[in-house]
Specification:
single chain, alpha/beta, two-stranded antiparallel ribbon, 10 strands
């Protein structure tokens, strides 16, 4: 992709993502993703109904009247985007490719985070860690992240979600909110790793997919290629049994993923390339509020 084209795409995504984060997600993001805890703010005179455990005894003794400590939520978060950049993301049959959908979702989350004064970082992964961008603040930092997403070329074609989660727990020492974005075409189980990681961090899963992964069109003989292994074969899409088996496989796979996410106690959504991801994100935020 040429530099001028990348910059146009970055600008287009920035305008859309900033608009969404400012106008639609502003309040929902704040309430859906909490800060680390409560921080001391001020002391005020005791009022009926205050918790006596909050009484500041030193100030109370000085003024001979009860005073209580007031606490406020610590809002600043560290947000990590754990982004799949394997070859299976370079597919799309409708409005956009899966990798384009990932970039838009990630950009929207990034601008929502920065609007709340949160730091944001990224881990690009395939079946290895392709790139780690440490958490920072600022528009320039976010634009750099978006540019990398749009024009990133992974060294490996395959996927290992398990390894990416392990890397997250090693490199990020303090609790953070992590958005794991992938199509989850991975051959390794990651349930135990996800469960352990979610006890340390707040992990949210966003699955992206294309509708043709769910249902095949009846278009006769079709050549299909596994993007991660390079394996090629021809299939007869006019065969009803084949189309039915294709959908059945998808449903089984989705059920397995659903079980994994539920057992790991993580919030998750699935978004197709032809769907409005804004509505899906709003549902996700509302679930957590």
């Amino acid at each position: 992709m040429e530099t001028s084209e990348i910059l146009r795409k970055v600008r287009r995504i920035e305008i859309k993502a900033r608009g969404l984060s400012q106008n639609i997600f502003a309040g929902q993001y704040h309430s859906a993703f909490k800060g680390r805890g409560m921080a001391f703010s001020e002391v005020r005179e005791y009022q009926f109904g205050d918790d006596i455990r909050d009484i500041d005894w030193n100030v109370t003794a000085r003024f001979h009247r009860p005073y209580v400590k007031v606490f406020e939520e610590e809002r600043e978060l560290t947000v990590m985007l754990l982004v799949d950049v394997s070859s299976s993301l370079e597919f799309g049959t409708n409005v956009r490719m899966k990798k384009d959908l990932v970039a838009e979702i990630a950009a929207t989350l990034a601008f929502s985070a920065i609007q709340n004064n949160d730091k944001i970082g990224v881990i690009f992964f395939s079946d290895r860690i392709e790139k780690y961008i440490p958490p920072k603040k600022g528009r320039k930092h976010i634009l750099y992240i978006i540019r990398e997403m749009l024009d990133f070329h992974a060294e490996s074609k395959k996927t290992d979600v398990n390894m990416s989660i392990e890397f997250l727990t090693k490199v990020i020492k303090h609790r953070c909110t992590t958005f794991l974005i992938s199509d989850f075409y991975t051959r390794n189980s990651f349930e135990n790793t996800l469960m352990i990681a979610n006890k340390k961090h707040d992990i949210v899963v966003i699955q992206v997919y294309d509708r043709r992964a769910k249902e095949l069109p009846d278009v006769g003989l079709m050549k299909v290629v596994d993007a991660e292994t390079g394996h090629e074969m021809y299939i007869d899409t006019s065969d009803k049994n084949l189309r039915r088996a294709h959908t059945a496989y998808w449903l089984r796979r989705q059920e397995q993923l659903h079980d994994t996410f539920t057992k790991s106690n993580v919030d998750f959504i699935s978004v197709a390339t032809h769907e409005d991801y804004v509505k899906k994100l709003m549902v996700l935020f509302a679930q957590r509020s």
